[in-house]
Amino acid sequence: MPELTPVWTLVAYPVALGAFTFAAAAFDTGRPLSRVARLLVQQRRRTLLPDTLLVRVGVAGLLAAAVLAGIVLPLGDVPLLGLDVGIVWFNAMEVCVWGALWLTGWGVNSVPPLVGGYRFIAQGLAYELPHMFALITAGLGAGSLRMTDVVQAQQGLWFAVWMPAAFGVYLVSALAMAFWGPMSQPLGADIAGGVTSELAGADRLLFGIGRYALLSVVAAAAVPLFLGGGAGPWLPAWVWTVLKTAAVLAVLVWARHRFPAVRMDRFMQASWLVLIPVTLVQLLIVGIVVV
Amino acid sequence: MAVAFWILAVVAVAGGVAVFVVDSMARATFALLASLLAVGVTFLLIDLRYLGALIILMMVMEMLVMAVFMIMYMMNPAGLMPMKMVHNKTGAAVIAGTVFVLLASGAVLTRWPERRGTPPADPTHALGLAIMGPKMLVMMVIGVAILATMIASVVMATHRGRYGSAMPDRRRDGEGS
């Protein structure tokens, strides 16, 4: 079994995730608390013949996937769950978002959410392979799939410095994974909000929390994978982890309105024809250097 | 451990039963996914963490792609109407019953060999050596061939998608939108 972790991580993880989720929401929407209050008193919207069970699973699943993906990320030095296959676990949990979005889109029995759900599957098929190769590159550089080993391997040089292509691809796939900014077409305005167009009240609130939590987790994962984890001068490890996560999150939030929307079929072509070869070459270079 | 195993076993079997009981394609797909995820978590229980995480990862992606294809090929629009999940009930029951009896009797009647050796310290490492060790060249060639096939088929499929060419073509600017 994975080694035991200190009890404080049980408290620190939800606090950190909650704080980053709130910060992302605050930067994105301006006044998150008033929005929360409004959504809490809002009525649920009823559609004709919805599959309520599947919608509930989908909406709750988004937050659950984000929380479960984050438990292998080191909070400073130790993660909540020190899994020896942490990278694979992170990947597996983050793929559950596909299911969450498709279920939400399907279950409400309405056209725009259905289109949005299918858009996310198409986007997922486009981003997932380059994303996996980027993750594997970090694992190969460290010779381990354990997140803390990946951090240890970056004592001398951050992976972002000597694997820039993998880092860049990770950031692009992070946008796609959290259906954020230019990759937010599953929630596109052209389909009236896509997956979320029929969500109201508590459902929309939970979905929104899940989405910001997911964005925080994909930003936080870049820190142990490519930015040296908690390494840094003077300050303790957890402060550096927080600072770096905040920096990546700020870049992702900033990117939201800076780039035009990307259509998923074009992204598919660009992703498979450019990003996959780029990550494979990066993987080859890292492989040669490591061996 | 034992409690967790039995819970997972019940979830796996119940998910499998639910596939045939529910009346919607989406519910059937996700019931099957729940069943497979329970199997994946069982692998985590017996310390095969890499395989467990991999099963979860692959099954989620696989069932989602399968949901897309199943619903795409169904006769009623998008599969939103309730439908029966079983066809040819008697034939299917006979075949399933026979296969179950064969497998179960095999499992019960076989003389299982005594365990030799101990589990390796790092099952992931041992698994990698077992699969890739002597067969490295074959696996590399097959891996590259599969990847090339996938990329080629996607390139051909996206040449002209639903919204026109994926990449803007200046020569045919006036055509379509």
Automatic annotation (TrEMBL), chain A:
Gene Ontology cellular component annotations, sorted alphabetically: plasma membrane
Family: Belongs to the complex I subunit 1 family.
Topology relative to the membrane: Multi-pass membrane protein
UniProt xrefs under InterPro entries: NADH_UbQ_OxRdtase_su1/FPO (IPR001694)
Highest taxon in the source lineage: Bacteria
Name of the molecule in the record: NADH-quinone oxidoreductase subunit H
GO biological process, any: aerobic respiration
Range of residues in the leader sequence: none
Species of origin: Nonomuraea polychroma
One family name in Pfam for this protein: NADHdh
GO terms assigned for molecular function: NADH dehydrogenase activity
TM spans (from-to): 6-27, 48-75, 87-108, 120-145, 157-180, 212-231, 237-255, 267-290
Localization, UniProt: Cell membrane; Membrane
Alphabetized UniProt keyword annotations: Membrane, NAD, Transmembrane, Transmembrane helix
Keyword Lyase: no
From TrEMBL, chain B:
Enzyme type, top EC level: translocase
EC number: 7.1.1.-
Transmembrane segments: 28-46, 53-75, 90-109, 137-157
UniProt entry tagged with the keyword Transcription regulation: no
Keyword presence, Cell membrane: yes
This protein's GO CC annotations: plasma membrane
Membrane topology listed for this record: Multi-pass membrane protein
Alphabetized GO MF terms: NADH dehydrogenase (ubiquinone) activity; quinone binding
Catalytic reaction(s) noted: a quinone + NADH + 5 H(+)(in) = a quinol + NAD(+) + 4 H(+)(out)
Family according to the record: Belongs to the complex I subunit 6 family.
Descriptive protein name: NADH-quinone oxidoreductase subunit J
